[in-house]
User: Which sequence fits this backbone?
């Protein structure tokens, strides 16, 4: 898959389209290409989406939208393919140290330099950009290195006589985000995310000026 963009305000429409084309439409095309053979053999479909397909978070809109689409596609497919004896399974990995996460700060720097208008850069300010880069690198440093957990989930989904409908490899996915998404009311989750944003991010430069006036 691909990961690009950041804040919706910073992310051009063509970036949304590119990410959707790979992460969602790629999955749709590949699945439909193999469906005739899968129906004949009563095979098994395992789609790797993301934790971001199970719960949205700010700063990841393009990627999250593509993974939500892939997640919904897989759920619809699971229900529809029961007629043909095909089982369909979703894997929602948490945050792992991969090329996508390690290179995140480079994508953000390129986005700032190449895609943002000068007006938008002025609106947010360099202090805001530098803080975003700092937070991104800290987030990447905290990502799990236990990538084998994803492989273990894929292997279980492929070979088990009783595979799970969903897998959440990664401690953050299994023990934090899944319970939060399943049981915490949305209004409470909004409050938590609002607090995290207020404490973790500076305000865009122009909104600070407006607040002072």
Assistant:
């Amino acid at each position: 898959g691909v990961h690009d963009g950041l804040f919706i305000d910073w992310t051009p429409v063509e970036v949304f389209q590119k990410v959707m084309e790979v992460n969602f439409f790629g999955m749709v095309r590949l699945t439909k290409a193999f469906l005739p053979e899968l129906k004949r053999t009563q095979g098994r479909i395992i789609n790797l989406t993301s934790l971001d397909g199970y719960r949205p978070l700010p700063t990841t809109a393009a990627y999250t939208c593509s993974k939500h689409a892939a997640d919904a596609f897989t759920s619809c497919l699971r229900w529809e393919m029961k007629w043909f004896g095909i089982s369909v399974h979703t894997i929602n990995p948490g945050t792992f140290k991969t090329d996508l996460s390690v290179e995140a700060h480079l994508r953000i720097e390129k986005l700032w330099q190449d895609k943002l208008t000068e007006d938008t850069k002025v609106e947010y300010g360099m202090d805001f950009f530098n803080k975003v880069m700092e937070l991104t690198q800290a987030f990447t440093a905290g990502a799990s290195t236990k990538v084998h957990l994803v492989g273990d989930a894929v292997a279980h989904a492929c070979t088990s006589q009783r595979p799970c409908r969903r897998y959440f490899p990664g401690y953050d996915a299994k023990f934090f985000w899944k319970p939060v998404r399943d049981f915490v009311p949305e209004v409470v989750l909004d409050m938590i995310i609002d607090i995290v944003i207020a404490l973790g991010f500076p305000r865009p430069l122009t909104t600070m000026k407006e607040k002072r006036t």
